[in-house]
Amino acid sequence: MGLFHCPFGVPYYDCEGCIDCGMCQATTREQMIEASKIVREHLRSEQKEKGPPKKIAVCGKGGVGKSTVVVLLANVLLDEGYSIAVMDTDESNPGLSRLCGFDGEPSPLMDLMRQVPEGKSGPEAEWLLKDRIALEDIPPEYVVEKGKARFLMVGKIEDPFQGCACTMADITRDLVGKLDVKDKEIVVIDTEAGVESFGRGVERSVDTVFVIVEPSFQSIALAERIYYMAGGMGIRRVRTILNKVGSVQSEQKMIDELKKKNISVLGTIRFDNEVGEAGFQGRELTGESRAGKDIRELMADLLEEGERIPSNR
Predict the structure, then answer these.
(1) What is the rounded CA–CA span in Å between residue 66 and residue 279?
(2) Residue 233 or 37, more confident
(3) Confidence category of residue 82, pLDDT binned at 50, 70, 90
(4) What is the mean pLDDT of residues 108-130?
(5) What string of DSSP letters covers the chain?
(6) CB-side neighbour CA atoms (13 Å) of 284
(7) pTM for the complete prediction?
(8) Which range (44-48, 186-190, 242-246) has the least confidence?
(9) Please, what are the domains in the chain?
(10) Cα–Cα dist 288/252, whole Å
(11) Are 169 and 200 in contact, with CB atoms under 8 Å apart?
C-alpha cells in the first residue's frame, strides 16, 4: 500500500475487516472519489443514534488553543460529575499533563511497540488485543490518575530520524475504537494539528468533534476541511468553538464566515490573559477563569442536547 493508510486499520486488501471499497487500489482521482463514497456510506450506516458525548476529539489548526480547550473542557466535565480520560495524541507538543494538574506523565503507549518485537505480541500488550477495553483495563504504568481524572499519552517524537507518526496514529485509532466508555465517562482527545489524523482514520470512532477556530483566515479555511472530513466519517456531532475572540465584532465576523460554509458554531471562548499566563508558566489551568466560564456555558448546551436524545447504551 505504500503511504496509504486504510481508514479501518486493515493491513492489506481483502483481509478481515476490509469492506472492499477499493481505496487502497485506486490509481486515479475518479477511483479515489468512488472509493471515498463507499467508505462514507459504510461509516454512516454504522453510526449510532446520537446521545450524550462519550468520545470527543478536539481538532484544529496549530496554535488555535486545542490543548487549552481540552483542559478547560475536562475541568468542566469533572465538575458535572463525569469521570474523564484525557488522551494526548499530539506527537509534538509537551506539557499537557501539567496543564491538567497531574504531577507527572505516564509511560507512552509507544513503549509497547518498542518492547514487543515486530510482528509478535507479548504479555505487555495483551490488553490491547481485547475486542473491548475499559478504562480500568489500561495498565497503571500507562495512565496517571487524580480523583476521577485519568491521563494517558501515545508518545512524542523526541529524537532526529525517529521516523513518522504513523505508528502513533495506528495505536490511537485502534485504542479509541476499542474503548468501552461507560455512562458518566467521557474521553477527551487532544489531536495533532491539521487534518492528517483524519487521513489516517484516527477520529472514525469518536461521536463528537470540536473544531477550535481562532480569528484568522487560515483557521476558518481549515475548519471547513475538518468539518467536511468529519462528516465523511459519519460523525454527526461536529461543532466549532470560537477561541481567543477579542471583541463582539470579531465574533460576529467569524460566525458570519462559518455560516456561509454551513458550519455549526457551538459557542465562543473569549480572549483570556489568565489562560496565556498559565500556559507560559506551565501551571494547571482551572475552570474559574473567564475562558473556563465560557466553556462551561457552551458545554451545558451540548450536554442538555445529548441528554434529550437517548443513547444506545
Answers:
(1) 12
(2) 233
(3) very high
(4) 67
(5) -TT---TT--SSTTSTT-----GGG--SHHHHHHHHHHHHHHHHHHPPPP-S-SEEEEEESTTS-HHHHHHHHHHHHHHTT-EEEEEE--SS---HHHHTT-SS-PPPTHHHHHHSPTT---GGGGGGGSSSB-GGGS-GGG-EEETTEEEEE-----STT---SHHHHHHHHHHHHHB---TTEEEEEEPPSSSHHHHTTGGGG-SEEEEEE-SSHHHHHHHHHHHHHHHHTT--EEEEEEEEE--HHHHHHHHHHHHHTT--EEEEEE--HHHHHHHHHT----TTSHHHHHHHHHHHHHHHHHHHS----
(6) 10
(7) 0.77
(8) 44-48
(9) 1-46 (no CATH), 49-308 (3.40.50.300)
(10) 25
(11) yes
Specify the pLDDT at position 6: 66
Q: What digits encode the pLDDT tens for the residues 123-133?
A: 567 787 788 99
8 A C-beta contact, residue 190 and residue 89: yes
Mean pLDDT, the chain, integer: 80
Name, of 144-158, 195-209, 268-282, the range with top average pLDDT: 144-158
Dig out the grid coordinates for 184 from the structure: 458518566
Residue 104's identity, in one-letter code, is G
